[in-house]
Task: structure prediction
Amino acid sequence: MMKIFKLKTFHGKILSIDNNMNISSGTKEELIFIEPNNFINYIFCTTKETEYKIINLNDSNLKGGMIIFEYKKEGDYIYLIDPISKKYVCSLPKDHNNKVIGNVKIAKEWEKFTIIPIENTTEYTEKNFNFTSGLSPNNIDYLFISDLIKKNTFSKLFSKKILDAFSIFMKMEDFQLFNFILSKDKKLLDKFNFLYENDIWNKSINSMKNNKIVELNNELDIKCIINDKNFSSFPHAIQFFTKTLMPSEFGPSLLSSCRNEGIYLIEWVAYHRAIGFENIYIYSNDNIDGSDELLSLLNKYGYINYVKNDIKNGISAQNNCYNHCLNFVPSIIKSSWVLVIDTDEFICFDHDKFQDITDYINWATIKKYDSISLNWRNISSSPIKNINEFQNKISLRNQNYLPRGYMGDGDRMVKSFFNPRTVITTNPHHPIPSNKYSFNYGFSDGCEYKWHRSPEGFYDNPLFSDEISFDNSYIAHYFFKSASEWFWKNLRNRGDNQLLSGISFENLSQDRIDLFKRQTKQDNYMKVNNDPNSNINEKADKIIDEILLNKDINYSYQKILNNYLAISRKSLIEYKKLPFYDDAFLNMVANEIGGL
Result:
């Protein structure tokens, strides 16, 4: 007979979900567990029968409106097991915020749960689970899922939950074959569209087919928070494998999320246009320097694609940018490659070997990689002698590499090119592929990328390369620039800081000031060699001149320069009122911006 119950942790709290939909314990929204009569050794976990919420088990493969656990019983206790990794679910105590994780190898006390029976519900009935009789994970393939969708008589809500639950057992080949059948079987397609009529991932599928962008909005922001290798739902998996089948119709594209970076935008855009990027997408939010107007004009006159990235508390601007662009913008999805960098970063490659960015990519991916990781090369600061120098290119104002090792393991950090059709999303440094897809990492030297010696305190992940290579390509990172720009950088808040807008001194700590001052005293710099870039610099300069000949753009750019100086001077006066201000640093900044 089917059983329905709750589970109490070893620490005496009921398993539930927190505000971020992560499985936790002791919160108001308690989870329901269902043990069907004939689906041996497996139980279903979900929320109330009247709602669809995507729940997530930390450090596991499990995510969806309903998820499946293996289980085993021992006396009065039950143990939950991730059916893919075969690791145990562990409930941590109060001093660990009642977090629940799914990656424990050996079951001990914290892995024990007690069953608390509850009454049968309207939706979760034995009749609805009869189809699991005699079912095993080995039977759950593309044919089973296709028949389940076409023949089921369940409610929409229950159907979506059960499909989420079963998708954990589907292999890459199952999703690919299901997609093929979906494109040929009208009845299946009609049923799928009926189930997921308003689903965001189905909207993405249709946008790719129709070459139409799904506009960024608040509803999308919330539902599009994806930052791991797990699909959030069954239609999300179908969307991903639809994406893998999309053709490459455009050249390399550039994607960036920025905030209050107006004084650098024209140079950055011109340089990357000059080396061969076809599409440049810039997402921006909460600007106070006038960047919105400049970005809109650059978009109007065809130099970039600008997306105003309005966010609200709890949403990361960068995640919002990457998730939207890589899933809901067909021209990015259908680009040959995408590079994600910030506007203080420039990709550099050996122009004696490679004619343009496509030439370099073709060489670096001859072994059919899905991504290319490039090391950061950090550039030191150079002082500004007068305020007119702010109009000079930062690549000419800052002419020295910091010595290797000055930034600790910073030289080992990477930025990445990737094939947009093979990733779920990305973070600022590396793509996030699906754990259901075979993904091949390449390095800037054309060899396989190795990343299994992360610094102490970091788990192994693609953020840090085992080796460093600057020979063929790298990312020039203009991290410090001048003292006044360092002041501005820390005043204007990080671009992904969703809690702060305007000016804040929160990031301008003495440690940050000391970090800047130390690098000005280095005496073993390596000079930046601009000779290999001479042809590119000429192309970039022509594009800059062309852009600035546009009176609207030129006027907007001059306003940004004026805003930058006015806000910096006003902020420097406020900084001097703080009890912890650094007098030497204050004078460096004041000299560059023409005094207080």
The chain has a mean pLDDT of 90. The chain has 18 helices and 26 strands.
